[in-house]
Amino acid sequence: HEFSGGERQKIAIARAIIRNPKLIIADEITSSIDYHSKIMIIDLLRDLQMKNSFAAIVISHDLEFINKLTNKIIKI
Predict the structure, then answer these.
(1) Which residue from 15, 65, 71 is spatially nearest to 41, judged by alpha carbons?
(2) Looking at beta carbons, which pairs linking 47-50 to residues 24 or more positions away fall under 8 Å?
(3) How far apart are alpha carbons 60 and 16 in whole angstroms?
(4) Phi, psi angle pair for 44, to nearest 5°
(5) Residue 26 pairs with which residues in a beta bridge?
């Protein structure tokens, strides 16, 4: 209860990837995180995706973030 919104998002991301999932569904994964941390998370997720071969469904309104993280975009 004493963590900021950004800290809570980072903890949630860590909890999701530590179990080596086959699929991650990320809804506004970086909405409360500063720009520098967003870049670090993007790089980390890309590296982990290559190493662990998991799929990710990313839901976001931040198209810059989406373009850096994904290889396929579906706009609804």
Answers:
(1) 65
(2) 48/17
(3) 17
(4) -60, -45
(5) 58
**22-76: pLDDT as tens digits:** 888 888 877 777 888 888 878 877 888 888 888 888 888 877 777 777 777 677 6
Q: Report d(CA 76, CA 17) in Å as an integer.
A: 27
Q: Contact at 8 Å (CB) between 27 and 56?
A: no
List, as own/partner pairs, every contact residues 50-55 make where C-beta atoms lie below 8 angstroms and the sequence separation is at least 24, other chains included.
52/20, 54/20, 54/21, 54/22, 54/23, 54/24, 55/22, 55/23, 55/24
Look up residue 2 and give its amino acid.
Answer: E
Global confidence as pTM: 0.65
